[in-house]
């Protein structure tokens, strides 16, 4: 879109006229008169034989000379005005106008950069130039105001509507052609714009319901000229119905959070241990974690994905002398190589495009005095391992773009689901970093080796999800428990948690049964690695209707559609509500033919 220029940027070239005559110095006066009358010229320029400068002859001057008896057969050069003041095409029109006003000149020849005359600027041209520019500015401003999303109303001092944009038409239900020029009072007797005219005082942030279900915020101010005269008032009206809905939803969520907090506080069975186990081997690891927590020793936690390595890190942290200081968890696999230094060590202001203007503290700096937990450390590329090793050894670093040393005092806990010693042997992990991390090693057994924990974990998760989802779970079928204990849980505790969450979200009643697993679409996965179903331990009556595939597809489709509607088709929220990855939701939407 063309940018609007202020009126004082008009150049002479934009306003001048090219309608003038050019004659030789020896042309007879009577010939010039004939040419001017025939071509409607107001002035002619003598182009040759004028060593003392440009000569200009206007129609008025020529007629006065003839009336005073000047012989018409003499050459025009005899009456041409000498040393004519000129202007240029690039000179601002306001400056040329000022020259004409001060010298009382009615016209100025216009020269280009080569010194050739290319136009004539008259008093009329000046007026027309300014008027054209004002008209263009007015059209631009009108277009801008007419397309603003807020409703804009302008009234004069008599309360007569002089502007009413499209948004005002939509919001108030009156077309501009039906209201402009009329008294606003005839349509809206109590409008705040009329109050502003009466009092010359602004009204700001007025919130009310314009009509049922339509909520607006209005502002109205007087239009005051530089000399202090009030010439009218302008009001803006914004539709905030959607914002109000969001605020109500936020208030509802806040109330729910408060209810959950109260329910958790008043719950008798308060979970005090972040890591649950009754398995003998795992309890030994837990005891070691508490014991090493009292020191500042570096700890390496190993275990398969989903075994609870971060929970174990929290056990160490809560049993340390740094428990009241910061605990900063970092997923090393999620940090891109090019952002590693800025994320881990921070950066100074202006270090790179897109960064925080005031700079940013890195993870190590945020953890200073406390504990930093580096999860998935086995995923770090070798170049990042070297940078990390240097900071661990020296306990100091520089921010990206900084020159001052930042010294830190942090407790380091690392975790991995990989065999670091094997990675060292393969040259994929630095040996010196491995020994720095491997001061104390805790190995968390996978869930398949601690099946006695499954029942307790299920009860703990149900208790947690009752609070989160405001549900009361009456119990869980023994057949479901048997199925859970027979499953090998490749995703370990995290998989158990997510699967149970999915079942609780999608189940119809308050009792977890085989049907609940079928409704949630997880029964087939659970039964895939065991023969409980084939051995007849689950009765056919529990799997009604007989066609399980149709039930699963139909029920799964209904549940996903309901979740999408409740989340207003936000896929990220719907996936979280369903307890499945977003990629899985995308696949199911396509496979089940569910439109966005």
Strand order of the largest sheet: 8-7-11-10-9
Mean pLDDT: 82
**Percent in helix:** 40-55%
Please identify the structural class as seen in this structure.
Answer: alpha/beta
Largest sheet: 5 strands, antiparallel
CATH homology superfamily name of the largest domain = P-loop containing nucleotide triphosphate hydrolases
CATH architecture of the largest domain: 3-Layer(aba) Sandwich
Shape: elongated
Number of strands: 20
Q: What's the alpha carbon Rg, rounded to whole Å?
A: 42 Å
Strand content: 15-25%
How would you portray this structure in words?
This protein has a five-stranded antiparallel beta sheet with strand order 8-7-11-10-9, with helices on both faces. Strands 13-14-17-12-18 form a five-stranded parallel beta sheet. It has a three-stranded mixed beta sheet with strand order 1-2-3. The protein folds into four domains: about 5-130, CBS-domain (Roll), CATH 3.10.580.10; about 150-240, PAS domain (Beta-Lactamase, 2-Layer Sandwich); about 280-445, P-loop containing nucleotide triphosphate hydrolases (Rossmann fold, 3-Layer(aba) Sandwich); about 450-590, Helicase, Ruva Protein, domain 3. The radius of gyration is 42 Å and the shape is elongated. With about 600 residues, the protein is an alpha/beta fold. The model is unreliable at about 530-545 (pLDDT under 50). Helix 10 crosses helix 11 (about 310-320) and helix 17 packs across helix 19. It contains 24 helices and 20 strands. The longest helix has 26 residues, at about 240-265.
């Amino acid at each position: 879109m063309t940018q609007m220029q202020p009126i004082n940027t008009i150049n002479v070239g934009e306003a001048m006229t090219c309608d003038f005559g050019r004659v030789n110095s020896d042309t007879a006066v009577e010939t010039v008169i004939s040419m001017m009358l025939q071509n409607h010229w107001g002035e002619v320029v003598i182009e040759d034989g004028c060593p003392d400068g440009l000569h200009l002859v206007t129609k008025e001057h020529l007629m006065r000379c003839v009336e005073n008896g000047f012989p018409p057969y003499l050459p025009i050069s005899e009456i041409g005005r000498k040393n004519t003041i000129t202007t240029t095409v690039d000179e601002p029109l306001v400056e040329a106008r000022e020259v004409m006003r001060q010298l009382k000149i009615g016209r100025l020849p216009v020269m280009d950069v080569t010194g050739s005359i290319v136009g004539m600027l008259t008093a009329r041209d000046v007026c027309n130039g300014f008027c054209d520019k004002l008209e263009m500015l007015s059209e631009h401003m009108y277009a801008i105001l007419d397309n603003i999303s807020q409703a804009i109303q302008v009234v004069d001092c008599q309360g007569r509507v002089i502007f009413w944009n499209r948004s005002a038409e939509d919001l108030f239900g009156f077309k501009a052609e039906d209201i402009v020029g009329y008294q606003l009072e005839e349509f809206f007797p109590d409008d705040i714009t009329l109050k502003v005219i009466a009092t010359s005082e602004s009204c700001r942030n007025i919130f009310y319901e314009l009509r049922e279900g339509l909520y607006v915020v209005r502002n109205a101010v007087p239009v005051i000229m530089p000399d202090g005269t009030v010439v009218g008032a302008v009001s803006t009206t914004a539709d905030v119905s959607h914002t109000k809905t969001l605020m109500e939803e936020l208030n509802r969520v806040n109330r729910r959070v408060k209810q959950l907090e109260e329910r958790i506080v008043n719950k008798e069975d308060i979970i005090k241990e972040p890591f649950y186990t009754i398995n003998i081997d795992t309890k030994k690891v837990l005891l070691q974690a508490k014991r090493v927590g009292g020191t500042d020793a570096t700890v390496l936690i190993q275990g398969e994905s989903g075994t609870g390595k971060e929970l174990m890190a929290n056990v160490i942290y809560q049993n340390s002398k740094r428990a009241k200081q910061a605990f900063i968890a970092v997923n090393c696999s999620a940090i891109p190589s090019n952002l590693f230094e800025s994320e881990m060590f921070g950066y100074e202001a202006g270090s790179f495009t897109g960064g925080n203007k005031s700079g940013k503290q890195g993870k190590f700096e945020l953890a200073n005095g406390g504990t930093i937990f580096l999860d998935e450390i086995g995923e770090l590329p070798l170049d990042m391992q070297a940078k990390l090793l240097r900071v661990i050894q020296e306990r100091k670093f520089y921010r990206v773009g900084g020159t001052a040393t930042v010294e830190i005092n942090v407790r380091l806990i690392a975790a991995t689901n990989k065999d670091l010693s094997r990675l060292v042997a393969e040259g994929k992990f630095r040996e010196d970093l491995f020994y720095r991390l491997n001061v104390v090693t805790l190995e968390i057994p996978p869930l398949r080796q601690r099946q006695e924990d499954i029942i307790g974990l299920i009860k703990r998760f149900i208790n947690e999800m009752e609070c989160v989802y405001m549900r009361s779970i009456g119990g869980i079928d023994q057949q479901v428990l048997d199925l859970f204990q027979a499953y090998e849980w490749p995703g370990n505790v995290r998989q158990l948690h997510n699967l149970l969450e999915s079942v609780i979200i999608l189940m119809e009643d308050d009792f977890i049964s085989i049907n609940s697993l079928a409704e949630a679409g997880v029964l087939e996965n659970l039964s895939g690695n065991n023969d409980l179903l084939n051995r007849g331990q689950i009765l056919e009556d529990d799997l009604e209707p007989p066609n399980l595939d149709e039930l699963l597809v139909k029920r799964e489709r209904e549940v996903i559609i309901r979740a999408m509607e409740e989340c207003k088709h936000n896929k990220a929220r719907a996936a979280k509500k369903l307890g499945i990855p977003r990629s899985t939701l995308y696949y199911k939407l396509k496979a089940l033919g569910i439109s966005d």
